[in-house]
Amino acid sequence: MTPEIRQLLRTIPISDPRFNLVASLLIHTQNRYPKFPMSTILDELPPAEICEEPKPERKNKGITQPHVKWEKKQREPVNSKFLNVPPNPLYYFEDGLRKVNPYNFTYNTFCKERWRGRSLLDIFADEFRERPLEYYKAAIAAGTVCVTATDKDSTKNKPPQSGLDTIVKNGDMISHTMHRHEPPVTGDPIGIVFEDENIIAISKPAGVPVHPTGRYNYNTVTEILRHDRGDGFNPMPCNRLDRLTSGLMFIAKRREAADTFMHQLKSRTILKQYLARVIGEFPPEDIICDQPILQISPKLGLNRVKANGKHARTLFRRLRYVPEHNYSIVECHPYTGRTHQLRVHLQFLGYPISNDPIYCNRKVFGINLGKGGEGDDEDIITRLNRMGKEEVATAEQYHQDIVKEHLEKKAEKMTGEFCEVCQTPLYSDPGEHELGIFLHAKKYECQDGAWSYETDPPKWALEDMKEGETL
């Protein structure tokens, strides 16, 4: 790094638009050259300050300058990954789990439509319930939770506001700086099914989100691949799987490859095959469910069969039935790609996925588990909102024993344990039953036969098999 750039970093305030340019160049350099001494540069940066450059004195006051109309644009905040240094080492493994050391992180998000006109405290208390109300009160008072209002008539942001009664408006940016504790995920590696110069077909472990979301940042498929491959690798997911779902995913290495694959998905020229383990004796004959699906709660991610929903179509075929434990292994062929399509259709048919924490939860859907669309939407939303969608389903008796044992262990671990830095109550490690559900993306193939990729079936699909029995 030249002395000129070092001096520039020391003198430019963060409010100066040039800072974004230099920061972007440095981020690009770090991604391209991972051994670049980025931490040294960060240590040399001055404290963030917000100030305005003095206006230059106008010369030739008697001369009329031509009027130039400037287009005013809102300035985006600097990438928070540049201002928040990741932990070192980034990952460590313990008890079969991949873990991330806690680190400081700033969330920046613009006001969502449903937040308009609400107070800062009300938004955090209602939408971000992983922390107690007292934490958010203290954070707002300390300024680590704040709102930056954007003046539409200026390219500069106004000073941040932080008050319990601060009202959030359209265009405002909400920031939350915190000591971040990411939940651990399975320590199982991301399997490679196929790879060439354009695309990677991977086997995603259950419980690992595809991309940063919610409490997950580095413990995600894209960030794990970025870390493992280095050299500026930029993974581009072509298809999405729920966090709790395992199986086949496609990661493009180039934008052109991603566009080609996603075009095939949209044109429905790719045939998909999933495996699911469901409650009860699924009928031996093939069943097609073409019930439309509607998202009835965006905040909770809850979907149900509704007449005014989007068209959805799935073929189900029973592979085996295990009468000793009253469950079936079912092959699923979705012809459309609606959110939670397989989980919702199986619930509607009366055979929900055995350990689905949402759609196989009697505390939410009642004794019949929502079969045939049974249940009032508002009542279901209220119950799900109250208990949290991550509560473990206890539909199978053998599963209840595992859940009970884990919850007892969890209660012991929670007693008196707090983070020494931020005083946040520490969660115990998730049990195996919390890391995924019995749903696996097994096979994808092109309709014209040009390519076909397949993963091995998961362990839960092979349990209780008799001698000579196959899927």
From TrEMBL:
Keywords: Isomerase. Its EC number is 5.4.99.-. SUPFAM superfamilies: Pseudouridine synthase. Residues 198-347 form the Pseudouridine synthase RsuA/RluA-like domain. It is an enzyme of class 5 (isomerase). One of its GO terms (molecular function) is RNA binding. The keyword Mitochondrion does not apply. Coiled coil: none annotated. GO terms for biological process: enzyme-directed rRNA pseudouridine synthesis. PROSITE patterns: PSI_RLU. It catalyses: a uridine in RNA = a pseudouridine in RNA. The active site is at D242. InterPro entries: PsdUridine_synth_cat_dom_sf (IPR020103), PsdUridine_synth_RluA-like_CS (IPR006224), PsdUridine_synth_RluC/D (IPR006225), PsdUridine_synth_RsuA/RluA (IPR006145), RluA_PseudoU_synthase (IPR050188). Responsible for synthesis of pseudouridine from uracil. Belongs to the pseudouridine synthase RluA family. This is Pseudouridine synthase. It comes from Pyronema omphalodes (strain CBS 100304).
